[in-house]
Design a protein that fits this description.
globular, alpha/beta, two-stranded antiparallel ribbon, about 375 residues, 8-stranded parallel beta sheet, about 45% helix
């Protein structure tokens, strides 16, 4: 039976990606902490949120424009920072950067990106935020921060929910390591996925492009437990642009971060990849919004899979929403064409949902649309 290979939903992208990616890479992208119960619970809560439809509202003219730090975006969602995106397909980082440039949306550029941070902001035409991991050596961290400032980044996102890298059994079972360690099982895995393997071989295996020379070496499994409030204070003093702290789920932490002078908080459970028993991020979002008030900027990622999810996150208190995994699956499925298809799907889903809710713009979303 013929099955349409176009992407109409997140599930389509995920299904097509699973067929094309080596098992090791697919499990790295798709996997979560522990048995995946934390990720599943967050998704379950999001999916069970109900939206109140309205009728006989004139919604003929609708706008999907958003706003982040007083800068208008073409879409109400952006691209969350993800490490080693080029595992999904060679050139994935730059595909994401071009999507950001096209729609004037932020793309998070990971410390562990496969493309240098300078090339990413150039390709994104300035629509890029640099995401920082503190690896324990503050001199290396400062060099990365200085590079980001020198090439024009205006927003720095400090990810703080990785004191230790979460234990992800699906990665462990596949023997996932960076750089790749090739044993018999990995060799067989790559041989069973020749299209991905040949493309990767031709383009060279993904590397951690922001490291080398005086920037040293990045070990994704290394403890980052040394990050503390004193480090944040030094970073706040050093970085003159907008500072976002990502990975926050606790109200008291959020209150303290606001007092520490950060410009925004990104509520996130790292896509369920860190602490399996963490509270659902979508619930933490509404709790933090209530504690910090209406004016403080809150961004959100974790568990967003479609346009209605985007609207639900706004209704829960987000000022802007980010997606991660869905974009990587779209790239793995159909390259830049797949990425464009999925972004168009999300755009259409948001637009249709707004119409059915009797709304004409993202700015009209209010908590009372949730039942």
């Amino acid at each position: 039976m013929f099955i349409n290979s176009n992407i109409h939903t997140f599930s389509d992208a995920r299904r097509l990606a699973q067929k094309k990616l080596p098992w090791m890479v697919y499990d790295y992208i798709d996997g979560s902490a522990g048995e995946g119960l934390g990720e599943s619970l967050n998704r379950e809560i999001i999916s069970h949120l109900r939206l109140q439809s309205r009728v006989l509202k004139n919604v003929e003219h609708r706008s999907l424009k958003g706003k982040v730090f007083d800068k208008e975006t073409g879409l109400p969602f952006g691209i969350a920072p993800m490490g080693m995106c080029n595992l999904s397909m060679p050139g994935a980082d730059l595909m994401l950067a071009r999507l950001a440039a096209k729609h004037k949306i932020p793309v998070g550029v990971s410390t562990a990106a496969s493309t240098p941070l300078e090339k990413m902001i150039e390709t994104a035409e300035g629509n890029a935020w640099f995401q920082l991991y503190f690896g324990g050596d503050e001199s290396v961290t400062n060099k990365l921060v200085d590079r980001a400032e020198d090439c024009g980044y205006e927003v720095l996102t400090l990810t703080v929910d990785v004191a230790e890298v979460g234990r992800r059994p699906r990665e462990l079972r596949r023997g996932f390591k960076m750089p790749f360690k090739i044993g018999p099982s990995q060799f067989f895995d790559f041989a069973m996925h020749p299209r991905w393997s040949l493309k990767t071989l031709f383009n060279g295996p993904p590397a951690l492009a922001n490291f080398g020379g005086d920037t040293g070496h990045f070990d994704r499994t290394k403890s980052r437990a040394g990050a503390d409030w004193e480090f944040l204070a030094r970073l706040r003093e050093r970085w003159q642009g907008k500072l976002v702290v990502k990975g926050v789920l606790d109200v008291n932490d959020a209150i303290k971060l606001k007092s520490a002078g950060v410009d925004a908080i990104q509520v996130s459970s790292h896509g369920g990849r860190q602490l399996e028993s963490a509270p659902p991020a979508i619930n933490a979002l509404s709790n933090i919004r209530e504690a910090l008030g209406k004016e403080f900027p809150l961004f959100y990622d974790s568990g967003i899979r479609n346009g209605e999810d985007v609207i639900k996150a706004y209704a829960k208190g987000a000022d802007f929403v980010m997606l991660g995994r869905p974009f990587l699956f779209a790239i793995a499925a159909k390259g830049e064409q797949g990425l464009a298809q999925l972004s168009d799907v999300l755009k259409e889903e948001v637009s249709i949902a707004l119409a059915l809710l009797g709304l004409c713009s993202i700015n009209e979303i209010h908590p009372n649309i949730l039942l």
